[in-house]
């Protein structure tokens, strides 16, 4: 038990670590943004779409929530080329993350939509608003306000989950770490440092989410 | 109970027929909530609808903007025949304001934004136009200083007045009130009724579901009494309160009017 830590050999590769962290952040943020669109549209379909569409959305959600993320990535990256859709690792990773977070996001946003008092929807109708206008101007913001903590937790999970994308050699932090430790054989140090970096990334995201909430989603207080 | 009890009814002229209901029926499952409703309302007319809870009075006015669909009979509002699933129902609804028992303000918007949303999105007004109109109406309901507040920061009476202003901002031809004072603390009832009386004075066509009989005496051209989904009796307030003909009306009035104020002494 006389392991001697040599962090110097890890920090020598700092440009790769920074690039990896940046890729993780970009990949995750893009997946959140696109996944949010999927989630909102899916929730809209599930709450007010025709029966066949609701069934389709349900099937999608159940399929994604009951299978491992790694397998989802493999299907997209190794499977899709068989039907002629060949994706770069980074694109495949983004697609897999979007598909994954979209399924969880739909259920979260749906819960938010269902928390909206029907009276507000009736008020929107009585003012002559069309269904999509009611959804956009009356329902959506309070719905997101209501479920914002669950949504942001899901987004943090997404960022942490993106490390699984290293399995298809997408350029992100975990892949960069794997690369470094295969050259300097300092896996303990490398993964300790990467643990710290993921932690910092999480903190950055929490901070950003709090900022967004403060700027756009703050709920009025009684006084 | 209201300050307006002792005042004479407000006289005014009526226009042509703007709402017609003919043989309207509606069921919730097997529950027959509206039975053969016949009602016509003229422009500028003020109708108060009363009756025991579950008598179908809210359902009746909710059929007029099709928040509830009826299953048989004809409803015509401002020349448009309302059929269930009517495409373009929005263009009918925007001419009919509605005030709800529970206010139903949009909680994420300020009082001013509650008033400007529909005029901008539905009528296509610019923000400046919509805000100018909204401030005018907030002034009319006596709360211009609350424009920047959110619903949660307002009292029930203030919220209901914002809700009235929000409806008026759409320049409706008809206003529906669904028990507008039932969810209010007693001390806030009059501030809302006063606004409604002022609205009546301006010539607005109004259908009001309420138990505020003082308001009915003062403002109504006609009081409609409903029970078990039927219109049992309708008459001008003096006749309605003075000599109710139907036994069910008499019983209802006996229950809701304070002792000594029912029957011939009322009005």
Automatic annotation (TrEMBL), chain A:
Topology within the bilayer: Multi-pass membrane protein
CDD domains in the record: TM_PBP2
Classification via Pfam families: BPD_transp_1
Segments traversing the membrane: 20-45, 66-85, 157-178, 190-212
Main subcellular location of this protein, as a coarse class: membrane
Record's keyword terms, sorted: Cell membrane, Membrane, Transmembrane, Transmembrane helix, Transport
Domain of life from the UniProt record: Bacteria
Keyword Transmembrane helix: yes
UniProt entry tagged with the keyword Ribosomal protein: no
ABC transmembrane type-1 domain: residues covered: 21-210
Subcellular localization(s) per the UniProt record: Cell inner membrane; Cell membrane
Family of the protein in this entry: Belongs to the binding-protein-dependent transport system permease family. HisMQ subfamily.
NCBIfam families: HEQRo_perm_3TM
Protein name according to UniProt: L-cystine transport system permease protein YecS
Organism: Methylobacterium crusticola
UniProtKB/TrEMBL annotation, chain B:
Single GO MF annotation: ATP binding
Gene3D superfamilies (UniProt xref): P-loop containing nucleotide triphosphate hydrolases
Residues in ABC transporter domain copies: 19-253
Highest taxon above the source species: Bacteria
PROSITE patterns hit by this protein: ABC_TRANSPORTER_1, ABC_TRANSPORTER_2
Keyword flag ATP-binding: yes
Keywords in alphabetical order: ATP-binding, Nucleotide-binding, Transport
InterPro entries linked: AAA+_ATPase, ABC_ATPase_HisP-typ, ABC_transporter-like_ATP-bd, ABC_transporter-like_CS, MetN_ABC_transporter-like, P-loop_NTPase
Keyword set includes Lyase: no
SUPFAM superfamilies in the record: P-loop containing nucleoside triphosphate hydrolases
Listed CDD domains: ABC_HisP_GlnQ
UniProt family annotation: Belongs to the ABC transporter superfamily.
Entry protein name: Glutamine transport ATP-binding protein GlnQ
Organism, scientific name: Methylobacterium crusticola
